[in-house]
Amino acid sequence: MTDQPVPSDVLNELAALRAENATLKQQLKSETQLPMSLEEFKRYGRQMIVEETRGVEGQLKLRRSKVLVVGAGGLGCPCLPYLAGAGVGLIGIVDNDVVETSNLHRQVLHDSTKVGMLKCESAKEVLSRLNPFVVIKTYPVRLNYSNAFDIFKDYDIVLDCTDTPLTRYLISDVAVNLGLTVVSASGLGSEGQLSILNFKNVGPCYRCFYPVPPPPNAVSSCQEGGVIGPCIGLVGVMMAVETIKLILDIYTLDNFSPFLMQYSGFSLQSLRTFKMRGRQVKCQACGENPTITRDTIEKGDVDYELFCGQRNYNVCLADERISVKEFQNSFLSPGEFNHILLDVRPHHHYEISHLPNTYNLTVKELRDMDGSIAALQSQIPNIHGQSEVLVMCRHGNDSQLATRILKDQFKIANVRDVRGGFFKYIDDINPTLPKY
Amino acid sequence: MVNVKVEFLGGLDIIFEKQRTHKVNVKRDGEQEVTVGMLIDYIVLNMIKNPKDKDVFIENDTIRPGILTLINDTDWELEGEKDYVLEDGDIVSFTSTLHGG
């Protein structure tokens, strides 16, 4: 090799690269000394400068926190993006449901292109785009006594965004046994409720508030009772506020007092905070002599189904029911109209859509007539003991109860329930009618 | 006579002609004090129009499970439950527990 002079442009390039390398090294050094990346400072700045969060200290608490959200529906959807946005380090989502069109008015993480997709995966997709610094774990399973402990054990806080008393008791019981705090909420119609349960393993649990479950016929779901999207949404957003406060230690053992918030959307919006009882000595889950322990739950000894009960709709014999096809062929074809069609859905459901030539009386209205045929005739003029009556409701549950009442109390011999109800009729016979 | 406000929340208003708040005067016999227990009897006797609706509100002679009772926004468990003695202006709220999500 000969000693040729290095071209000046190469030397210049070398000097530039060396300078750049030094800057990068310096930057890397200062960044590794920082508790978070510069990007995270920028991303969380607006909440870090709220003094109560204690800036970097609070942000690191959020990053270290692990929050499990059970249910990615009407409560979970509005809550989750705020948790992800705030920088909660690990977010778990438990939900085995798939997105349906009827969810979209309130479950705002999902959209029309995601119908049929798992809700937990749909949520993860949105949240990962919102904040790539957050780890999202999905559990496409139905929470039950055998999987709950295994899922819960990796988290510090559990959010109950579910929709049945059964899962509410289960979540509370498992959280009590693992020492986790629960943010619990619910909503229906234009109202919502929110509470913090088992706070730092000393606050009251769900069973302290509700030692005895409500009778199954007093429990209404969103599918049944309806729900206003922003009303339940507001409660979901409030859950995010409570969760952030828990993580930032705004609540302490000294200042925490059990509460239940009640939101009403109609007519004037109102939010009330009720002061609630503390932990109950006699509580079966968190009291002095608990019978609901990890062992009894995992063995299946705590029978949640039996405890919460179920409504029994199967009150008709096979020959007291007909299929929608038989119904169509025998009773809806033009000609002499000797039979009576009774739709027992609530009136406001009936008004949305119904079949022609039908009467509309609810199960409650029938029951309140105490079997008086005169009272029934004031609503259905031509009905009598020998009338042929076909009863339908939305899905074929209430119509069975109504069939029973018409036969047993009104002594109308020839009453039959249309199996699967109006919606089954729409699905199988006439899809041009509106389903809601 | 004691004048109180009674509220039915969480959908319970359905059995009270869809009216959420009611002004109630409970009369007392002689010197007797009016307790929340007596108010509940009064509600069952005079305010539930349809006798078939009683079991929406009452079960085994007490408030049905799943309904919270609050006296001036405080869980009645902290206030002596049925034995709480009402004063003029008290607010007694009954709220059905919601389960939807």
UniProtKB/TrEMBL annotation, chain A:
Active site: 222, 393
SUPFAM superfamilies, per the entry: Activating enzymes of the ubiquitin-like proteins
Any single GO BP term: protein urmylation
Pathway: tRNA modification; 5-methoxycarbonylmethyl-2-thiouridine-tRNA biosynthesis
GO molecular function, one term: thiosulfate-cyanide sulfurtransferase activity
Residues noted as binding Zn(2+) in the record, renumbered to the chain: 205, 208, 283, 286
InterPro entries, A to Z: MOCS3/Uba4, Rhodanese-like_dom, Rhodanese-like_dom_sf, ThiF/MoeB/HesA, ThiF_NAD_FAD-bd, Ubiquitin-activating_enz
Cofactor: Zn(2+)
Protein's UniProt keywords contain ATP-binding: yes
Domain Rhodanese span(s) in chain numbering: 335-434
Entry-linked SMART domains: RHOD
Gene3D superfamilies assigned to the protein according to its UniProt record, in alphabetical order: NAD(P)-binding Rossmann-like Domain, Rhodanese-like domain
List of residues binding ATP: 74, 95, 102-106, 119, 163-164
Source superkingdom: Eukaryota
Cofactor annotation remark: Binds 1 zinc ion per subunit.
Subcellular location: Cytoplasm, Cytosol
Keyword field: ATP-binding, Cytoplasm, Metal-binding, Multifunctional enzyme, Nucleotide-binding, Nucleotidyltransferase, Transferase, tRNA processing, Ubl conjugation pathway, Zinc
Keyword Ribosomal protein set for record: no
PANTHER family: ADENYLYLTRANSFERASE AND SULFURTRANSFERASE MOCS3, UBIQUITIN-ACTIVATING ENZYME E1
Entry-linked HAMAP family: MOCS3_Uba4
Family of the protein in this entry: In the N-terminal section; belongs to the HesA/MoeB/ThiF family. UBA4 subfamily.
Protein name in the entry: Needs CLA4 to survive protein 3
Source organism of the structure: Lachancea dasiensis
Lineage: Eukaryota, Fungi, Dikarya, Ascomycota, Saccharomycotina
Gene designation: UBA4
UniProtKB/TrEMBL annotation, chain B:
GO CC term (a single one): cytosol
Cross-link type Glycyl lysine isopeptide (Gly-Lys) (interchain with K-? in acceptor proteins), residue numbers: 101
InterPro entries: Beta-grasp_dom_sf, Mopterin_synth/thiamin_S_b, Urm1
Compartment(s) of residence: Cytoplasm
Domain of life of the source: Eukaryota
Pfam assignment, any one: Urm1
Entry keywords, A to Z: Cytoplasm, Isopeptide bond, tRNA processing, Ubl conjugation pathway
Cytoplasm is among the record's keywords: yes
Entry annotated with the keyword Cytoplasm: yes
Any one Gene Ontology BP term: invasive growth in response to glucose limitation
Molecular-function GO terms, alphabetical: protein homodimerization activity; protein tag activity; sulfur carrier activity
Modified residues (1-thioglycine): 101
Post-translational modification remark: C-terminal thiocarboxylation occurs in 2 steps, it is first acyl-adenylated (-COAMP) via the hesA/moeB/thiF part of UBA4, then thiocarboxylated (-COSH) via the rhodanese domain of UBA4.
Functional description taken from the UniProt entry: Acts as a sulfur carrier required for 2-thiolation of mcm(5)S(2)U at tRNA wobble positions of cytosolic tRNA(Lys), tRNA(Glu) and tRNA(Gln). Serves as sulfur donor in tRNA 2-thiolation reaction by being thiocarboxylated (-COSH) at its C-terminus by the MOCS3 homolog UBA4. The sulfur is then transferred to tRNA to form 2-thiolation of mcm(5)S(2)U. Prior mcm(5) tRNA modification by the elongator complex is required for 2-thiolation. Also acts as a ubiquitin-like protein (UBL) that is covalently conjugated via an isopeptide bond to lysine residues of target proteins such as AHP1.
HAMAP family referenced in this protein's UniProt entry, alphabetically: Urm1
Family per record: Belongs to the URM1 family.
Protein name (database record): Ubiquitin-related modifier 1
Organism of origin: Lachancea dasiensis
